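We modelled the chain as a single entity of 226 amino acids. Its sequence is:
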Amino acid sequence: MPTIYCVEDDNGIRELISCALRSGGYGVKAFPMAKPFYEELETSQPSLILLDIMLPNEDGLSVLSKLKADPKYKDIPVIMLSARGEEYDKLFGFEIGVDDYVVKPFSPKELMARIRAVMNRVNSAKKTEDVITYQGLVINFTAREVLIDGVKAQMTPKEYDLLFYMVRNRGIALTREKLISDVWGYDFFGDDRTLDTHIKLLRKSLGDYADKITTLRGVGYRFEKN
């Protein structure tokens, strides 16, 4: 289920948007201001961000600028929400990299239609990224194949699952709990040692590229972007 983050300081609008998203089949996390939103981004990443322009302490355009300047977050699609419809705001937002701009008041149906349109564009673009290459490490999602300096790697099905998940979420700090729940499933009855063992095996399979997986002490692991 795609999860959408909504940063909106108006309680009523935030609740309205949250209800519309849940009814539309999306997961949702809502924040009244930028600070808790930034904190959540440190541990998980959404499929799309709804960002109000008029926020307390730090306005939405400033938040957008930071997101688009950070390699970890710059590819997350953003829809700006605002009661201000001035052309300058729209132009500035589009120049920074916003994907769409919705002026208040808006209907839940309009917002959902715009979200679906942006998500469709993003998903279409992602489908072209079936192969990711890091020097001699080639990861082919469609063929479910990994080449290391031209030689096909021999991995267990769970190693493939773990590697593909981490690569798709590269650059993100992934907690042990999230890795276990998303790769093994919520009905998994093992413990952290199972994850650590598979990480060890995966690093061995990656050979000279084992250092692409970074251990985050007390947190989990991260697959480096570069």
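As a brief sanity check on the tokenised model: The mean pLDDT is 87. The first strand starts at residue 3 and ends at 7.
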